[in-house]
Amino acid sequence: xxxxxxxxxxxxxxxxxxxxxxxxxxxxxxxxxxxxxxxxxxxxxxxxxxxxxxxxxxxxxxxxxxxxxxxxxxxxxxxxxxxxxxxxxxxxxxxxxxxxxxxxxxxxxxxxxxxxxxxxxxxxxxxxxxxxxxxxxxxxxxxxxxxxxxxxxxxxxxxxxxxxxxxxxxxxxxxxxxxxxxxxxxxxxxxxxxxxxxxxxxxxxxxxxxxxxxxxxxxxxxxxxxxxxxxxxxxxxxxxxxxxxxxxxxxxxxxxxxxxxxxxxxxxxxxxxxxxxxxxxxxxxxxxxxxxxxxxxxxxxxxxxxxxxxxxxxxxxxxxxxxxxxxxxxxxxx
Length: 334
Description:
By secondary structure, the chain is an alpha+beta fold. The protein has helices at 9-18, 28-41, 60-81, 163-169, 244-247, 270-283, 307-310, 321-332, and strands spanning 20-24, 51-53, 85-95, 103-106, 119-125, 137-138, 171-172, 179-184, 189-191, 200-209, 214-218, 228-233, 256-261. It is globular, with a radius of gyration of 19 Å.
């Protein structure tokens, strides 16, 4: 099957080159409707919360309702943009005004066979985003076709211990409410804290090649030299975790085993990360000026709070994050 998923050839070419595209998406009344839905589903927001994803919630009914209502509104716009595609759910993301609301640098999980197919994250802000309120930022050219990877919570990133390099190389995208940033699941990305005085609401919604199985990977770090296991997962598994922080680092409860994967992620040295990132961003059509003066020396040792060192998922940077992510590190066994 072709990995082509955009109807517009120019959008597909740009996506293939840089790993993301930006486009007008929602109508004004739809942005208003989704803001109203958010408010109805989140009547008691905690003012000291940092970054929050709806997928973290243990409330299955909440997650299902949010996903269904979002996809219902997004559907006609998917049809306008994509070909041979299939939606696989959605969730609200929000950042309260809080210096601890950064979403750490990371890559999203491998959920399809990326040698043959594609999975997309459609990120849609419900408010205008700028340099003050936590805009999405990506490292151009770091998607799967440019650098191979398998990503899951129990495997490290190729840039482990060098988050600062990737953050400096990341390009922020400032867009109006209702625009969509369509990014490859594999591209390196993050978002800085919301330092404005208002909540920043957004949506993440998934699209993948039509008819392709959802997958998840797992390595048991309690077993020496354990292989990477692959599982076929239910279509809604991303919003089905009962205890998100605990469940994502355990062998899947509902998945069907598909055997093991012969793959080992090479963890690059700092100078290799810098050189590779400069080359990939340049080939994607972006300058890597943020890396011009970065020190090519060993980064400080990883701490228990560094999400990308030990688990292929980004730590929610709230005041409670250190204890949560120390526990996650222990559960992951790495």
